[in-house]
User: Which sequence fits this backbone?
């Protein structure tokens, strides 16, 4: 990841996303000054590119992670309002997202609405479960996923997007 490219994206994105429209009156706010984390979806560059294009097209508006990863890392769960910079497969910043909803549920309780919002495959909850078994097993203790395992379901919206799809489908300011 080229930190200079991420820094330049952040400088542009926070203005285009109007993160502090009252700044002239109230001064700078934390959200405006702290650069959010930058990461990519998927396990490899091809998947990262495919996922970022789904985000830019407005098809992917949700994501899933394993609850135990947060515990193991001592990390806080994401919260509505959190920002993130999504990278493509070449680790270039492409999208600024804002988390809008966070739920912790059992793997067995992931619903069809969330599966559709993840925007992958045929959008069914059955295919969502199949696709996520391997991903979640890699992050689960001892590589085992069961129906009781807790997962973190996040919804997000695009604030700023850069790329082919962004021009037509993503508001940029």
Assistant:
């Amino acid at each position: 990841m080229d930190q200079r490219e991420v820094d330049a994206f952040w400088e542009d994105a926070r203005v285009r996303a109007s993160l502090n429209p009252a700044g002239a009156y109230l001064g700078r706010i934390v959200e405006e000054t702290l650069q959010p984390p930058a990461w990519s979806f998927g396990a490899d560059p091809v998947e990262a590119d495919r996922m970022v294009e789904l985000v830019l097209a407005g098809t992917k508006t949700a994501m899933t992670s394993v609850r135990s990863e947060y515990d193991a890392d001592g990390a806080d769960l994401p919260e509505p309002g959190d920002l993130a910079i999504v990278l493509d497969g070449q680790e270039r910043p492409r999208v600024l997202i804002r988390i809008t909803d966070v739920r912790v549920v059992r793997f067995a309780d992931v619903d069809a609405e969330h599966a559709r919002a993840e925007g992958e495959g045929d959008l069914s909850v059955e295919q969502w479960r199949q696709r996520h078994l391997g991903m979640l097993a890699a992050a689960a203790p001892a590589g085992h996923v069961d129906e009781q395992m807790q997962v973190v379901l996040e919804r997000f919206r695009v604030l700023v997007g850069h790329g082919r799809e962004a021009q037509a489908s993503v508001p940029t300011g």
Observations:
- The longest helix spans residues 125-139.
- The chain has eight helices and five strands.
- The chain has one domain: 3-168.
